[in-house]
């Protein structure tokens, strides 16, 4: 039953990667409007679920008993392999689109900031600025062009721009040394591209493993077809 254990383990890892993408995307979804970017994560979770079901059924017992079971297993692995290749291709396509998507939406998100915690866009900006240690789109001076900055009229940026080590920071632009100097746009793009790379590498790794699995299964299938003694050895049978 080693095959079943492998499939369940592979399913768990693939589902974990897919879930990680969903959870992380939720933190950055205001900066990325194209929900189709989640397609690779959806597919990889679906593949993981399929492998988990196959593992629970215990397909390996069937494989050892019949040539038909082995052929079915090869076909399933082939379908999963093709699916993971599709995930890799889609991952690269959407990874290339990240920069344009963020560039298109980030200005609108910053203009919608109102500084109140219940507001989803405001929470997203404060989270990103604290998490990525950045301020503004390109730097902290971008805040001067926002509606929120003009309405507050206190010449300061949100407290999420303050360096984490400083407890007395007020966000005032008169003390720029207290603020994160790097802009958020480049860091958000980098983070989203890293997330997509996790999906790509996971799909590539399991595609390579499954390719080896298919080769091994095909070798066994060919030997069974050509050598009856090998069939008896695998199944534990004996000559009459």
UniProtKB/TrEMBL annotation:
Q: At the top level of its lineage, which domain of life is listed?
A: Eukaryota
Q: Which GO terms describe its cellular component?
A: plasma membrane
Disulfide bond among the record's keywords?
no
- Please give the start and end residues of each transmembrane region: 7-25, 37-63, 70-94, 195-222
Q: Which Pfam families match?
A: Tetraspanin
What keywords tag this UniProt record? Glycoprotein, Membrane, Transmembrane, Transmembrane helix
Membrane-topology descriptor: Multi-pass membrane protein
Q: Where is the signal peptide?
A: none
Query: Is Protein biosynthesis given among the entry's keywords?
Result: no
**Where would you say this protein principally sits, based on its record?**
membrane
By its UniProt entry, which InterPro entries does this protein fall under?
Tetraspanin/Peripherin, Tetraspanin_animals, Tetraspanin_CS, Tetraspanin_EC2_sf
Q: Which PANTHER family match?
A: TETRASPANIN, TETRASPANIN-3
Q: What is its biological role?
A: Regulates the proliferation and migration of oligodendrocytes, a process essential for normal myelination and repair.
State the family it belongs to: Belongs to the tetraspanin (TM4SF) family.
What does the annotation say about its assembly with partners? Interacts with claudin-11/CLDN11 and integrins.
Write the protein's name. Tetraspanin
Q: What species does this protein belong to?
A: Anser cygnoides
Q: What is the lineage of its organism?
A: Eukaryota, Metazoa, Chordata, Craniata, Vertebrata
